[in-house]
Design goal:
Chain A: This is Response regulatory domain-containing protein. Chain A: InterPro entries: CheY-like_superfamily (IPR011006), Sig_transdc_resp-reg_receiver (IPR001789). The complex is a heterodimer of chains A (about 160) and B (about 200). Chain A has 6 helices and 5 strands. Chain A has about 160 residues and is an alpha/beta fold. With about 200 residues, chain B is mainly alpha-helical. Chain B has one domain (about 1-190): HPT domain (Four Helix Bundle (Hemerythrin (Met), subunit A)), CATH 1.20.120. In chain B, helix 5 (about 90-105) packs antiparallel against helix 6 and helix 7 (about 145-155) packs parallel to helix 9 (about 180-195). The longest helix of chain B is centred in the middle third of the chain and has 26 residues, at about 110-135. Classes of the chains: A alpha/beta (about 160), B mainly alpha (about 200). At the A-B interface, helix 1 and helix 2 of A face helix 1, helix 2, helix 3, helix 4 and helix 9 of B.
Chain lengths: ~160, ~200
């Protein structure tokens, strides 16, 4: 019986400190975004890995690439029907603004949806993104809630009835 | 069982200390929450990427600052990247030095930049040491894989509420007490489920 008592102490110890922490208790995906096909473009390995996982947690099917060129070529191959592009603005060679401009030129005004990722705190970022035909902006570091909110807002605006 | 609790407590204390000292921030918690069964090594993978990237960037920065004519745009781009990846894993103190570093860059202040490089190197090696202590096992991972798997199953079966199972697994393994602990926990788990079946416990 003494063993069982100790066991209970341990349980409460763990719960008291880390109640929300256990990964298996987290919802695996958000039904709103389940199956949403996303292409993520970020040249930074760490950020790309984390953002990809965040999107997957929300239920998205994510393809991750590390440059604007890769993003454009993935979009242009016919069998890939991405609904959303998540795009880091600050990339070497071709930055996010340039990628968005080309997407709007070669694809269409409302397909695919584009959400920018930026660490910049500048006020005019949102305006510049709009001018380039982007649909949303997320500030880094990206948080699960912030990502979910912006995805929902952008999809709602696009009339995809969430 | 005492030593299991003790090890867990050490782990909890150690993690709490990293937050108290501002070495890590809440973003690291988010990272741990993203880890799941489909990717049980997610945190270690991301942090390893961070180490690789940071070391490359710190080398580049050192080289760039030694040049006769310093290319501040290049330096700023490197620091920007380091700032981004450190904030992604929650390495708060590295990130803060990066902000000061970028200001020095903007002012074209070479001495300030050199000082910031030393600071950022210091903060980086600090967070690296601390995180490595937290993960300690890398490299030995394959060795006890099947035991780790069983350990995980036992942990689930006994409804262990651990902050991060993989961390505690690594911790035990590191302490070289893994198998001993495994057998103890297994015995307790079996005892527990037996009691549960017999209706002695409703936990």
């Amino acid at each position: 019986m003494s063993l069982v008592l100790r066991f209970q102490i341990q349980l409460s110890y763990g719960r008291a400190i880390f109640a929300p922490g256990t990964s298996s208790e987290q919802p695996n995906s958000n039904p709103h975004f389940r199956g949403l096909r996303v292409i993520l473009t970020d040249d930074d390995d760490v950020n790309r890995t984390v953002t990809k996982k965040l999107l997957e947690k929300l239920g998205c099917e994510v393809t991750a690439v590390s440059s604007g060129f890769e993003c454009l070529s993935a979009l242009s191959s016919a069998e890939n029907s991405f609904r959303l592009v998540v795009l880091d603005l600050q990339m070497p060679e071709m930055d996010g603004f340039e990628v968005a401009k080309r997407i709007r030129k070669f694809c269409s005004r409302n397909w695919p949806l584009i959400i920018a990722l930026t660490a910049s705190a500048e006020d005019n970022i949102w305006e510049r993104c709009l001018q380039m035909g982007m649909n949303g902006v997320i500030r880094k570091p990206v948080l699960l809630q912030g990502m979910a909110d912006e995805l929902r807002r952008v999809l709602q605006r696009a009339g995809e009835g969430l | 069982m005492d030593s299991v609790i003790q090890l867990q407590r050490q782990l909890v204390d150690y993690t709490a200390q990293l937050f108290n000292e501002g070495i890590l921030d809440d973003q690291f918690n988010q990272l741990q929450q993203l880890q799941d069964e489909s990717n049980p090594d997610f945190v270690v993978e991301v942090v390893t990427l961070f180490f690789e990237d940071s070391e490359r960037l710190l080398n580049e920065l050192a080289k760039a600052l030694e040049q006769q004519s310093v290319d501040y745009r290049k330096i700023d781009a490197h620091v920007h990247q380091l700032k981004g990846s450190s904030s992604s894993i929650g390495a708060q103190r590295v990130q803060k030095v990066c902000i000061a570093f970028r200001n020095c860059c903007e002012d074209r202040n070479i001495e300030g930049c050199q000082k910031c490089l030393q600071q950022v190197k210091h903060e980086y090696s600090l967070v690296k040491t601390k995180l490595e202590t937290l993960f300690k096992v890398r490299g030995k991972k394959g060795k006890n894989k099947s035991n780790l798997f069983r350990m995980n199953t036992v942990a689930q079966a006994t409804d262990f509420c651990l902050y991060d199972r993989s961390l505690s697994r690594r911790f035990w393994q590191q302490e070289g007490q893994f198998l001993g602990q495994y057998n103890k926990v297994k015995t307790i788990a079996e005892d527990h489920s037996q009691r549960k079946q017999n209706g002695i416990l409703d936990m």
